[in-house]
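Task 17 of the worksheet. Students: predict the tertiary structure of the chain below and write it out as structure tokens. Keep your answer in the requested format; marks are given for formatting as well as content.
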Amino acid sequence: MNEPMTELNEVLFQTLQGQNMVLLGTIDAETGAPVQHAISWLYAHSAGQLRFAVDSRSRMIANMTKSSQVSIVVFAGQSLYLIQGTATVHEQLLADVPLKLSCVDVDIHAVRDIMYYGSRITAPPVCEKTYDERAAAKLDGQVFDAMKKA
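Model answer:
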């Protein structure tokens, strides 16, 4: 078993400078069961901290308020990584964004390569916006700009 890193390596840090689909794991506030959420408004704020935005009314916010421990699964550098940390709502409502989004910081505790032995990712998942491409690009820009100012 490999020892966990305590911060992002260069491959992960660079991968998380652009928009990527990742899986956010939280503990359901009502049932106590682990749950996964696909999110894409996430970036590496530093090697030791991630920042992401989600709808402020979402179940994810309620889950993280009750239990701040989260996990994030990232496809990067032909592998799959698990990032574990503590989530804190940095801003309840992001300014200059047309949606009601909260900004969340994750202080990283551990980073592990979780790809099974003898394999590699040859093509990471690719997501496509299913609504107006120009509107999506504009919104994505507004969200990332607002998170970086927060």
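Marker's comment: Residues 75 and 124 are 6 Å apart (CA to CA). The helical segments are 10-15, 59-66, 133-149.
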